[in-house]
Amino acid sequence: MLITCLVKYKKKIRFGEQKKNAIALDKKREMPQAKEWVWVGALIIIGSGMQGYANSTFHATIVAPILFVLGYGIIRFTCKNRSEELRVFMLSFAMCVFIGGAASCYSIEVFSSIHSTIDSHTFYGMISSAPPFTTIDDMPAFNAPLAVLIWQQVYKATWLLGFDFGLYVGLMFNALVIGVCGSMTVSIARNVFGHDIGRLRRVGTIYVMCGIMWLFGAVLIRDCFTTMINLIVLWAIVRWVVRSTLANMFIAVAITALSTYAMYYLRIESIFLLVLYWFLGFMFWFHRGRFDIVRLFVVIIIPIVMLVLGGYFRTYVENALKVRSIQAEGYASHSSASNRSDSLGMKLIINQPLPVRLILGSGSLAINPIPLWANFRWGVSEYNILKGFHGLFQIILMPYVILSIYICGRMFILRRIEGMAMLYLAIFYILNVAAVAVTSLETRHAGQFISAFIILAAAPNMKEPTTRRLMRVAMVGWFSLVVLVHLLWIIMRGIG
Q1: What is the sign, positive or negative, of the torsion defined by CA atoms of 351, 353, 356, 361?
Q2: Mutual orientation of helices 223-242 and 246-264 as an angle, nearest 10°?
Q3: 352 burial via Cβ count (<10 Å: 0-12, 13-18, 19+)
Q4: pLDDT tens for each residue of 459-493
Q5: pLDDT single digits (tens) 84-123
Q6: Which of 154, 175, 181, 37 is nearest to 100 (CA)?
Q7: pTM for this structure?
Q8: DSSP code of 254?
């Protein structure tokens, strides 16, 4: 008996050591590797150098490391022992600084201006280079005062430190925000996948290669801030869906309320969507453990009804939809002016009734631009070139997202609770794409919700034979559709 106890004790010690070694190995794998630090350093040095050249100042090479260290400290403090969040911040910040430098140099070469995007010119013109600094009272009737005020505080800090005024400060701060958004995306994925290092690294890598995040971090537009607010709300709700406690529900409610208030000063037409996210989360929480086809139908159909007819339910929703309708008309006019009258978009989407526009518009956001090579030519603005890269990014990853949605459906049918968070992300992304399809049809507006797309794309386990077989089917179907759409475009061009 004594011998048996000793053997069991030895086995227990050995098992404990193996578990400890496995955890240590996981942490070692999770930490940013030396080659990643080399890439980060090279991209920041080259990118800040290009931004310094474009802005005619060497101060860009000082501001970039300062912001990097600031962001590094924030992520290190808020995400303790979670090095995947740190890794994605480092890589995405460095990539955005590099892309921002390349975009500025390209714009100077082609347009003799440091930026060619209209929104960038507008925002930059509202920022003061020295006292008296811009306040909310100084701004005209404009629906993004919070973005300008944030940038102004950053420029105020750089003025106090004696740095030269230039576009590079705003671009690098946007890169910082996008880096933090990357960490938040991985944090949301951690709630969904748990401590699965392979999937978390995949989420981080995909995020770093996302063209729309390059755009938000390399051009002076407000979408980096709206993306962050959407991610904060998404993080709170996914955490609530995964761990359905009353405390997490109250946290989600509080975060949604504060985020709605902030969004009012960034993009007023989006405040309705934030409430919709919370309502969707509430439906998941209420039906948790007793989901069936009828309840899933309710969860999907009620948000769609609220999205389309929300003005009939609440006064503030009516106001939000009114603003949204006005902006939709503006975007439609912009689309009409910037597209040929015989273009595929004009004939099939913009001038169609709402149901047709909803379906075809959602498809056009998935395959955008049409053709995919439309933006890759000299003389196109840096804004459109980056959107072109994002188009390729979406095309390549869409089969993975389609497969993830299929897997969510199967997990739902099998009543597996662990699939609830994935199902929430899938419905979240679909609803937001539908909302953009019936309003602006603008890729960067859908890009605010791309983190859900990225997490879904990282979900399939390609080591499983069944998953690989299903992936081949998804790829054949998806890429056949892409080819068909382009053939239709060629035929319509020929007829026109």
Answers
A1: positive
A2: 170
A3: middle
A4: 998 888 888 999 999 999 999 999 998 898 888 77
A5: 999 999 999 999 999 999 999 999 999 988 888 888 888 9
A6: 175
A7: 0.84
A8: H
